[in-house]
Amino acid sequence: MRGMTRLEHRVHELSVGQLAERSGVAVSALHFYEAKGLISSRRTAGNQRRFARDTLRRVSFIKVSQRVGIPLSDIRDALATLPEERTPTVADWARLSETWRSDLDARISQLERLRDDLTECIGCGCLSISKCALANPYDRLGDEGPGPRRLLVQGGPCCHGDDAPPRPAQDEGRGTDCGPGGEPAAAPGGLPESCAPACAPEG
CA 112, CA 26: separation in Å to the nearest integer? Predict the structure, then answer.
């Protein structure tokens, strides 16, 4: 049975272990995010990381964005629009959300096509079902470029997998990130699919 992850109201800064436990993201992934400039921390006199409590919201934003296949480079650009010197307000998050509306709409359209059109010819060049002969005779759609030409949304997102965080050793300790659909296993650039190791104190 998992322990309680609730944080006391008076807590304003979190250790990397607390951040991992409450967010459900592996410590190794948090280190990776910090190295990529997605989140930031200060160092104590003992050289331990301390994160502002609002980092939880940033990490949650990263986690959900990766789940739907948004690459870390886009997530980083989006987070860069938020203020660093103070806790982002509702208005700050609303501006960020508005800039992503068209991209998210394109992703929704892509997912709908994947759901509805997989029994049709998708223009991938396989020519393995009877409808391919009519929709893509002699693989003519290959002249347009690689990939499933009839499934792709014009101007739609392209997922990148070269900025995925390292995969930690599997463990049932704190900081787990192994939900269904996988934090990064379900989509390129996602979080590690294995459970995170227990959060050991830094120093």
Answer: 31
Q: How far apart are CA 158 and CA 89, in angstroms?
A: 30
State how far the alpha carbon of 75 is from the alpha carbons of 88, 90, 123, in Å: 16, 18, 30
Pairing of β 49-52 and β 42-43: antiparallel
Q: Grade residue 182 by pLDDT with cuts at 50, 70 and 90.
A: very low
| Torsional sign, CA 123, 126, 129, 135 | positive
Domain-located, residue 132: no
CATH number assigned to the domain comprising residue 32: 1.10.1660.10
Average pLDDT, the chain: 73
Burial label for 23, CB within 10 Å (0-12, 13-18, 19+), is buried
Report phi then psi at 72, rounded to 5.
Answer: -60, -30
Tell if the pTM clears 0.90, that is, is over it.
no
**Could you list the residue range(s) of the whole structural domain that residue 42 is in?**
11-90+159-203
